[in-house]
Amino acid sequence: MGIVGDVEKRYLFTPGPTPVPPAVLAAGAEPIVHHRGTDFREIYASTLERLKSVHRTESDVLLYTASGSGAMESVVANLCAPGDRVAVVSHGSFGERWISICEQHDVDVQAIRYEWGESPDADEVAAAVRESGVDLVLCQQSDTSTGVVSDVRSIKEAIGDVTLVVDAISSLGAVPLETDGWGIDVVVSGSQKALMCPPGLATTSVPAHVLARAKRSRSFYFDWQANKKAQDKLDAAFTPAVSLIRSLDVALGLILDDGLEAAFERHVRLGRAARAGIKAMGLELFSPDDDSSAVVTAVRAPEGIDGDDLLLQLRDKHGVTLAPGQAHLKGKIFRIGHIGWFDVFDITTALATVELSLTELGADIERGVAVARAFEAFETPVAA
Ligand SMILES: *Cc1c(COP(=O)(O)O)cnc(C)c1O
Questions:
Q1: What residues contact residue 28 under an 8 Å CB cut-off, 6+ apart?
Q2: Could you give the 3-state DSSP secondary structure of residue 348?
Q3: What is the pLDDT of residues 181-239, one digit of tens each?
């Protein structure tokens, strides 16, 4: 384990929570302000404006103190009544989460399921939606459990007027998502992934035409109308996590100062570096081997090695945290996140420790090439 003085040096390479820049952490350590005073109102106003820019929408972005799943639940609580029928496009563990939330709310789900690791096909989705006659579709842009980033723009084009809700919890700020430009009706996200913030805040963009079709909320806390009314007056409905909102304001400022386009380009190059290194070691990718895989790189554990054992070795021996496979992929894959405050040295560190740990566990892999290949891949300009 890397020891500096008597402090363990640890490395976090998971697709949420993600590393947080010092300025963002420092903002969260400022003295607490009262949430109904002018001090906070300024921060709140700035954060809500910046959220609109990052969501690429002119509509309201509701901000909750909750993890990302809270924003997901707000959608079902406000757009569905018991017995309503909705379609869920599921191609990983977070698609299954949409289904669980719907079931908990007694909503009837038409599941449009794909194998984990496959990308949904827009025309197939549209055909299934037409056949079932639903007027609401829930999906993921990035299903973080597999690394697949699906083409939500084509899905929206194919389903037309049917309301589309996109879970962009791990993809907002990492890959392009034109909420207004593509006509995406609702986008949910969270603070602890590409937005470079600690966990604890969730967002939902809700345009007027969607608010108009909302039902009586079956959640008190996540009631869209009540939250919007309060936000409109810069007077949060409930005590918000003021420190986290300070942090989010700074993080969004950093992202927007650099520009979203620069962030998207960096994420593509980080994905390229991760894939090049993994392949150079002789390992097999689970996530698609193309530039869409800019959020997380999922890798098959090599023959004879359990992915979870590898992760334990990485963490306990070398202080490096990667993400495991979920559900039926447990032990079979491992995942390197590269969203948010990541640069190429994070990727090469992750690759170098995977290489070292696999060697320690007795796997037969190619040594000494992954890092060099990763640097080469990262250097290749994206505008090809
Ligand atoms: C992380 C994540 C979630 C859930 O977020 P929590 O903050 O853990 O509630 C939902 N969907 C996707 C795609 C995610 O990556």
A1: 198, 243, 244, 246, 247
A2: helix
A3: 999 999 999 999 999 999 999 999 999 999 999 999 999 999 999 999 999 999 999 99
Write out pLDDT tens, residues 326-363.
999 999 999 999 999 999 999 999 999 999 999 999 99
CA of 143 to the centre of ligand 1 (A): 9
Domains of the chain: 3-18+259-379 (3.90.1150.10), 31-258 (3.40.640.10)
User: Strands 296-300 and 163-167, how do they pair?
Assistant: unpaired
Q: Is the CB of 92 under 6 A from ligand 1?
A: no
Tens digits of per-residue pLDDT, 111-154?
Answer: 999 999 999 999 999 999 999 999 999 999 999 999 999 999 99
- Choice from 18, 64, 90, 94 to test ligand 1 binding pocket (greatest atom count within 8 A of CB): 94
The verdict on the CB of residue 94 being under 6 Å from ligand 1 is yes
Pairwise CA distance, residues 277 & 369, whole Å: 7
Tell how far the Cα of 69 is from the centroid of ligand 1, in angstroms. 6
Buried b (16+ CB within 10 A) or exposed e, 67-81: bbbbbbbbbbbbbbe
- For 293, residues 6+ apart whose C-beta sits below 8 A from its C-beta are 147, 148, 149, 271, 275, 285, 287
For the Cβ of 170 lying below 6 angstroms from any atom of ligand 1, the answer is: yes
Is the minimum distance from the CB of 140 to ligand 1 under 6 angstroms? Answer: yes
Q: Residue written as tokens 């345009």? A: 207
- 190 touches ligand 1 (CB under 6 Å): yes
User: Could you read off the pLDDT of 302-330 as tens digits, one per residue?
Assistant: 999 999 999 999 999 999 999 999 999 99
> Are the C-beta atoms of residues 319 and 325 closer than 8 Å to each other?
no
Among protein residues, the one whose CA lies closest to atom 6 of ligand 1: 68
pLDDT of residue 61: 98
